[in-house]
Amino acid sequence: EAGISKDGQTREHALLAYTLGVRQIIVAINKMDTAQWAEARFDEIIKETSTFIKKVGFNPKTVPFVPISGFNGDNMLESSKNCPWYKGWNKETKAGAVTGKTLLQAIDAIEPPARPTDKPLRLPLQDVYKIGGIGTVPVGRIETGILKPGMVVTFAPSNVTTEVKSVEMHHEQLTEGLPGDNVGFNVKNVSVKEIRRGNVAGDSKNHPPAAAASFTA
Known about the structure:
Layout: H1 9-19, E1 27-29, H2 39-56, E2 65-67, E3 89-93, E4 96-100, H3 103-108, E5 123-131, E6 135-141, E7 152-156, E8 160-169, E9 172-174, E10 182-187, E11 200-203
Parallel strand pairs: 1-2
Antiparallel strand pairs: 3-4, 5-6, 5-11, 6-10, 7-8, 7-11, 8-9, 8-10
């Protein structure tokens, strides 16, 4: 009840998710066992939640509503016998209607977002390490574009240009890093003092990152 009240955390989370660009959500209604799996209570919460997520910007028809008991595991991985009235969730997608019963099925029904591989490389650095026998290794998450060994990258705003010797993720060598990948990459002839957290790496031959004179927020 507190979560969906006027200043509730659930409302806040829905607004934050939408503001950050999340367009697919699942509403799991927990602790249904404490409400004796009452269908009327479930319907009441759906009605209330649908109203405010619609105001935020989500379309309730694209959102699965799943009654669960996290403590007992009901409707988490397998369909529960405690709510015979529950016929399952359904949601509309670009490919058509999707239905299911459990929270796991709802998670599996999330459509993977399109990765912006066609845009220029942008990789904000989370940290820069000096590793013995290897050298300088910047790490960060690729936001757009593709990072490959042999590519010449430029770091902004420090304006350092260097060649990428190798790209790794989870201690495995990659032939290319894609948007969403958290990678570490070894660079030639650059000391840890020349680049730092917050710098942005880009392909020096394809719209490298540059300083902005102004921006509209």
